[in-house]
Amino acid sequence: MTEAAPTPLVEPRDGIPDVVITERRLVEAADALAAGTGPVAVDAERASGYRYGQAAYLVQLRREGAGSWLIDPAAVPDLSPVDEALRGVEWVLHAASQDLACLADVGMRPTRLFDTELGARLAGLAKVGLGSVVEELLGLTLAKEHSAVDWSTRPLPQDWLRYAALDVEVLVDLRDEIARLLEEQGKLEWAEQEFAALVAAPPAPARVDPWRRTSGTHKLRTRRQLAMLRELWNSRDALARQRDVSPGRVLPDAAMISAVTGNPRTLDELVVLPGFTGPAARRHGKRWLEALARGRHVAEDELPLQSLPSDAPPPPRAWPDRDADAAARLTFARAAIAELSERLAIPVENLMTPDTVRRVLWDPPSPDDLEDRLAVLRARPWQVELLAPILRDALGQLAKAPVTEEPEASDA
């Protein structure tokens, strides 16, 4: 029997709602959502790759009895009335960790949530993107052609608004299907612990030396080159922030690396390097040359370290040389966790983060302290229950050194 083709989801059931751009309409939205029933579907659209930062430029919500609402945070930046209306209501998001920070910036923080992407992972679905999960579980197809557009565009085109409204159209239905799967598999409580951890997670700390994330940094061999990159990155970041443009649009990472390795001293030397051949290179050329010059003149004792100090274990490839016993523990644990992952149909990284596993095996606690150590590392109770026995067994593994027989003593 041929499986039925999925049905395209092409139009919101209530039509495309008008975008909320006034405080009065925001209060109306909050009142309507408060009067609704059941979970609320929530999504946010950013202008990643276009604007500086990760601000939300559209927030979409849908709740039974309230319909769908599209809110423009650029016009009404404080969405706390909506947040108040939804206190205690379960929020349904897909890949919640991508949106929670930008929602918090406009005053929206869930007290309960259901992450359909994370739930799909725990349920063992092979593909967990929103479109794939909706197609597999609901038999519908979502158009994704506007997923990477510049959502800071004003006015927003109707096609984009249709796409945005459809993203929350069936999110609660999807939540119910995933919850059903998790319940059948005995994993719903595990998922609920994961969702609670997302709600309780503190804001991500500011990244130390964010310039080190520049793509291609591994090509720089000296601390002086790192100083030049740091100055160039800071100069680009300041200009991008001033213009509210994605830093990569001001100057690509590859161009910064080529400038550091090429070490130009004049504009003519700069504009022949990869990434600097366009008119913007001449317009901002003086700025980039000055940044490179500052990097050349950083005092020796102020040069950045080749790498930041870290309390993390060394990379696993170095374990056999650094600590053969730890390497044996890791090999044992990896095999056992992989078997558990296959048996439960849960990705290895969702059973427990690789960093947590490595920290426990590199610097092992006493057997009695294992569960406490895992809790300190923010492993959830369900993870501790499943993984602690494996890690305890791994901690008993020792590197097996080859045994050589002593030569028999000669009678001579």
From TrEMBL:
Cited Gene3D superfamilies: HRDC domain (1.10.150.80), Ribonuclease H-like superfamily/Ribonuclease H (3.30.420.10)
Stretch forming the signal peptide: none
Species, as recorded: Angustibacter luteus
HRDC domain mapped to chain residues: 222-302
Transmembrane segments: none
Protein name: Ribonuclease D
